[in-house]
Amino acid sequence: MNQADVSKLMSQLRIAVRPTKRNLKNPDGPEGRLLKLRKTVTALVKHERIELYYNRADEARGYAELLISNAIRHGDRHKATMELADYWLLEKQLVHKLFKVLVPRFENSNVSYTRMFKAPRDYPGMYYRKSVLELRGNPYPVLTPDNSQNRNLLHNVLLDEARKEFRREKLANLANKLAAETENATASTTATPAQAPVTETQTEQSKQAEEAPKA
Amino acid sequence: MAQLLLRNLTRAGNAALITKGTSSSITGAEPGSRQLHTTQACCEIRKLARLRVVDNSDLGKRAMAEGRPPRCIHVYNKRGVGLIGDKVLVAIKGQMKKGILVGLKQKQRIKQPQFDSNNLVLIDDNGSPLGTRIHVPIPTVLRTILKEKTLAKGADYTKVLAIASRYV
Amino acid sequence: MNINVRILTKSVAQQYAFKRIVTFSTKPTQQAAAAAVPQQQEVTGPTVRKPIVPAHYRFVYPEFLPDPKVEWRNAVREKLERLDMLDRRRQIELPEFYVGSILAVTSSDPHAAGKTSRFVGICIHRERCGLRARFILRNVIDHQGIEVVYELYDPTIQKVEVLRLEKRLDDSLFYLRDALPEFSTFDENMEAEPLEEGAPVPINDIKVVLRPRPWLERWERQNLLGVANIEQYIKDKHRKSAEKVQKPWEKYDLMKQYRATIPEEEQKEIFAEVHTELHTLELQRKRNKRKRTFVKPKHLA
């Protein structure tokens, strides 16, 4: 290879691509390797999340991505793309899923169509690394822990402080306003009803002041 | 010295330049002879490589017409592989004759022509050709090479250039 | 919440990251993109004009695309090479041609009598990319097949003329070496056959006739379209062995194709960089051509 092949045009993948392929040990050679990968891609489109060995998942991921990107690019009226789908999806009802479910799902996506996670391997057991491969937008619960609510993260601490300060400012403004109103009221007649809320806000402020050092 | 260096470079280049279509049958055009190859194809001019006589010398014409092209039995340089402009000893119709390589099948350097057959012009010991005309084009680089050789070796090889019909 | 922080860190990282070969997407993640869109619109609102690169550029200038082999990629070197190529193209007219076109190359040759040599022949192969792009010309002169390799950006090349612009059915025509000589014989004094402007490049569907075996390569294994009589010379055993080496699954091997091509986004980037320059050069060439054609009849009269 010393010149790029210009006869075909492909969209850029949004995943890291290895410079070379893995052979995936197979007695039937490259054809058997593709059959293995076809099974994986079919399972991925069918179940949307699968757990398998890392090498095979990583190889199959590129094929799944390209299959979807080709389907988005050419649509179901394109003969070559249909042939591709027919080859890669061993269960033929999944061809419908590809064009009618996955294409609309990923049409405006800016990120990769699949996600891959490293999975723990059981000890003692097979040595091979394991992984979870999934399509984005699947109906299952997410695998990544949600850290956004962790109070101890720096940005959350900062946000909390900012929130507190904002509230404090708002209350101070309110108090000033009320004070002005009471002054007006005393100037005109007698003033009593405004006192109650002022005390409430004061107590709240004191409470927050106590909380602040804890956070 | 510079020439030698240049040649070595060419040789190294040849090894690197092997691309599609380098594999070829044993050198030389042999229309009538049996096509039997027991070894891997080799484009180099080594001992026992067959050549094609491209001048109109009587001996060469008869040998080519009979379908018994000359065989290289010695290459007069220090690496045993003939490059363009090199003198070779050939066995032709039971005689030993000298000749100059004027066109090679091997990969050549950029801008220098590569021929479909290994061409040879028969010369005598003084460097003057046996024929009076070369009926195929010869590479222009031969001019420089043969002039240099004439100076170095003492024999006058430039007469070969004089009988050339066309350069490429 | 912390999404904003994530976006911030990401954009900062993108700004300061050393730009390397992209084997993955540099596109921002979904949320970041959503956040970035309004800003971009503000910025690019008035300057929407982007150079529109014609789709056929990748066929006309294939050497501007780098070698897709990841280990050999180097963004800086590629960019510098492109600049050098444009520099060369400013000096000399390097026309559009394909495998199967008939070219005449004039190059300076210190060994030749007039210090220049001109070779006419059919282009049988194009290879390599960047400054090392080269092509092979083949012709039969005085019943002697001759091939010459030229580098496209060689500074000693003085002129490249396309005498007949056309394509053939195959990507490389090495089988002409085993074909009858009349299929690679071209007149040296051939006149250029100009193509109408805007007309598509014609495909010459000539089928060449091969000599009998032995051949230089096993042509029966290569699924050639431009060969007429391959069936005539092969036996059952050849047919069987040819069948054995076929790789029908390769057209479905998407990742293999992906690794052999430059993705569309990258191609767009590359051609956007050189498009304006190439376009102006093309226009200039057209103007010059018109001038030349206009002068000729006057001269005759």
Automatic annotation (TrEMBL), chain A:
Residues 180-215 are annotated as: Disordered. The keyword Ribosomal protein applies. One of its GO terms (cellular component) is ribosome. Pfam families: Ribosomal_L17. InterPro entries: Ribosomal_bL17, Ribosomal_bL17_sf. Residues 180-203 have a biased composition (Low complexity). Keywords: Ribonucleoprotein, Ribosomal protein. The keyword Ribosomal protein applies. Gene3D superfamilies: Ribosomal protein L17. Belongs to the bacterial ribosomal protein bL17 family. This is Large ribosomal subunit protein bL17m. It comes from Drosophila arizonae.
UniProtKB/TrEMBL annotation, chain B:
Keywords: Mitochondrion, Ribonucleoprotein, Ribosomal protein, Transit peptide. The keyword Protein biosynthesis does not apply. It is found in: Mitochondrion. SUPFAM superfamilies: Ribosomal protein L14. InterPro entries: Ribosomal_uL14, Ribosomal_uL14_sf. It comes from the Eukaryota. This is Large ribosomal subunit protein uL14m. The lineage of its organism: Eukaryota, Metazoa, Ecdysozoa, Arthropoda, Hexapoda.
From TrEMBL, chain C:
Keywords: Ribonucleoprotein, Ribosomal protein. GO terms for cellular component: ribosome. It holds the Pfam family Ribosomal_L19. Coiled coil: none annotated. SUPFAM superfamilies: Translation proteins SH3-like domain. Belongs to the bacterial ribosomal protein bL19 family. This is Large ribosomal subunit protein bL19m. The lineage of its organism: Eukaryota, Metazoa, Ecdysozoa, Arthropoda, Hexapoda.
